[in-house]
Specification:
This protein is an alpha+beta fold. It has a domain of about 120 residues. About 60% of the residues lie in helices and about 10% in strands. The protein has seven helices and four strands. A four-stranded antiparallel beta sheet has the order 1-2-3-4, covered by helices on one side. A hairpin with a 6-residue loop joins strand 2 and strand 3. Helix 4 packs across helix 6. The longest helix is centred in the middle third of the chain and has 31 residues. The chain is globular. It starts with 10 loop residues before the first strand and ends with a helix.
Length: about 180
């Protein structure tokens, strides 16, 4: 599937569920993922950290697979987002608490999607993934898995739980009784 990945070369992709797009691992500063006709330029933050120190061929291949992993895991990411939003969406909050909750929801969702996408890379590459990182040790790789795991799983559970980071609004206190 992954032939030769070159910098600045667009690859047409199709997900297992039929979504078409393009991926261009342009350089260390920008990646392009195009879904239909909508271009999504973005900085490759995860790839910058966890591909640090890898030879260019390995870095480009794994970065491409990571971006393709976002395509492949979109349904799982959507289910995760729906699960978190549905569980707590109807809760009454002040505007500031809504903004805080939405921000935490966004961080939890993004972290989970990064785990899913990198998990796709591991699944696709299998032992080649681990042997690549054994040859070129990167201290950010275990940090990525630990931090994204804590944010993706831990924060997701917290976002849908009853545990509150802040005291309840006084205006809604009578509804709780």
């Amino acid at each position: 599937m992954v032939a030769e990945i070159r910098k600045g070369q667009r690859h047409r992709v199709w997900s297992w569920y039929g979504l078409a797009g393009e991926i261009d691992v342009e350089n260390r500063l920008w990646h392009l993922v195009k879904v239909g006709s909508v271009p999504l330029h973005h900085p490759p933050l995860v790839n910058l950290l966890i591909r640090r120190g890898l030879p260019q061929d390995d870095r480009l291949r794994l970065s491409y697979l990571h971006e393709f992993g976002h395509f492949q895991t979109l349904p799982l990411a959507a289910v995760h987002l729906f699960w978190m939003a549905r569980r707590r969406l109807s809760k009454k909050r002040s505007i500031w608490k809504w903004l805080l909750w939405l921000g935490l929801l966004g961080v939890a969702h993004e972290a989970m999607w990064e785990i899913l996408s990198e998990g796709y890379v591991v699944f696709h590459e299998r032992s080649a993934y681990w042997s690549t990182y054994k040859k070129f040790n990167n201290p950010f790789l275990p940090l990525f898995w630990g931090a994204m795991g804590a944010l993706g799983i831990g924060l997701s559970l917290w976002v849908v739980s009853e545990i509150q980071l802040y005291p309840p609004d006084k205006e809604h206190e009578h509804e709780r009784k």
